[in-house]
Structure formats: C-alpha cells, structure tokens
Amino acid sequence: MKDAFGIPQSLLVLGGTSEIALATTRRLIARRTRTVWLAGRPSPTLERSAADLRTLGADVRTVAFDALDPESHETVLGKVFAEGDIDMVLLAFGVLGDQARDERAPLNAVRVAQTNYTGAVSASLVSASALQSQGHGSLVVLSSVAGERARRANFIYGSSKAGLDAFCQGLGDALHGTGVHVMVVRPGFVRSKMTAGLEETPLATTPEAVATAIELGLRRRSETVWVPGALRVVMSALRHVPRAAFRRLPI
Asked: What is the mean pLDDT of each run of 10 residues along the chain (251 residues)?
C-alpha cells in the first residue's frame, strides 16, 4: 500500500528500459518502494536494468511485454496483478520516430501511432481495471509537451501524444472517486538516449528532474505535472498563437 505521502510500496513499469522510468524507480526505491516489475521486450538491457535496481535493495522481476501486441496485454498484466497488489503503474514506453523519414513511409508513422497511442490505450485500460479491482493505486503516464500543439517538426509524434494525453485525462475523470489516481506527466525536451543527436529546445530537462517531479506529483496527488514547471506558462501562450504566426515560429 502507498504511504501517507503517496509513495508506492510496489511498482509496475511498462517500458522497463526507459531512462525516465528507471530514474523514477531508483528515486522511489530510495524512499519506500520494495517490489518492482519491469515490463518490456526481453533483452539484455532489460535484465541489466533489473540487476542494477536489485543492488538498491528492491525485489525486482522482469516480464515480457510488447506495446504493439495489445491482444496479449490482459494476459501479461493480469499475471503481474495476480502476484499481489500493485500500488503504482508507470506507463513509460514510447518511440520518437523520425519525422522526415516517417512522412515518406506511412507504415513507420503508423508504428509510432500504434506504440504511443494504441498500445498505451490498451495498457492503460487493462492497468486501470486491475487497480480499480484492488481498490487503490496510481496510474502515472508519460505524455509530452509535444502533444499540446502539433508542430511541423514532429507532428506525427506530437499527435500520438496529444491523443494519449486527452485519453488519460478522460480516464482520470472516469476513475475519480474509485480510489485510483491518474497522473499525466508532460516533460519538455529530455536529455536521453532517445533524443541523442537532436538539437535541444529551451527548458530542456533530465530523466532525474522528471523523476523528482513525479515523486512530488504523487505526494500532492496531482493530476497533471509539467517538467519543468515553467513549460505550463509557455505552452499556454503557444496554444493561443494564431496558426499563421505559429507556422513561422522556429520551433
């Protein structure tokens, strides 16, 4: 069970090799978390991540999970929840894609959408149902400021995150009063392997900073978390820029 400050004792990570997810898991283990499930495609990286977390004192197990195979989600995640209550599910999988390439190869764009949106919708609903059945828990979903308004430079990725963000807001409303808390996390540019080689945008952040914001959001039972917080004001302004002017912005 979570303590009075919202820190989970047990954690299921969907996207077990995500740098943000691992930074968050390390932070939560340092606070209270003792049981961790890392779900992802079987790989040496997933096993190394689990081994590293075990050195921090947690009981860490891995489970084969594929975002692109939604038909397996109920079975795979059901087995995890059958092992015992899960206090928090962190949905952290996603792909950035290559905008220029994916515009010319529609199937690549579809893969981005299926991973970031369709797979996430499936995993979120399965997780939410399980959390509701046990009567408590948090579902924390990594969205992105890219979903606030589609930009020419990454509208395929941005549109998939926009869909996920809207879905999770609605899911949170649907679960209000059930004991299940849904929190959407909207980071800006995160310095990670996923963004290596890309030009940084203003207010760039780190996986560790996102992890800190997630912990604070859990303690406050926030519904939406911006990382860094200043992006809330920036994106609020950008949402209201006329479209003709928005096209000319160097973003």
From this structure: 74 96 97 96 97 97 98 98 97 94 96 98 98 96 90 92 97 96 91 71 84 96 91 79 76 66
Phi/psi at 149 (nearest 5 deg)? -155, 125
Identify the DSSP state of 117: I
Contact in structure between 97 and 157 (CB atoms under 8 Å): yes
- Does the pTM of the predicted model rise above 0.85? yes
Opening angle at CA 59, ends 56 and 65, nearest 5: 110
Rounded Cα distance between 231 and 251, Å, is: 14
Q: How far apart are CA 19 and CA 208, in angstroms?
A: 9
Q: Which of 65, 93, 157, 189 is catalytic?
A: 157
Indicate the residue type of 93: F
What single letter denotes the amino acid at residue 226?
Answer: W
Burial class, 184, CB count within 10 angstroms (exposed 0-12 / middle 13-18 / buried 19+): buried
Contact between 186 and 164 under an 8 Å Cβ cutoff? The reply is no
Write the DSSP assignment of 148-175 as a string of letters. Answer: TS--TTSHHHHHHHHHHHHHHHHHHHHH
Query: 157 an active-site residue?
Result: yes
Residues 140 and 88: beta-carbon distance below 8 Å: yes
Neighbour count for residue 128 (Cβ, 10 Å): 21
Distance, CA of 81 to CA of 134 (rounded, Å): 9
CA quadruple 130, 35, 49, 66: dihedral, nearest 10: -10
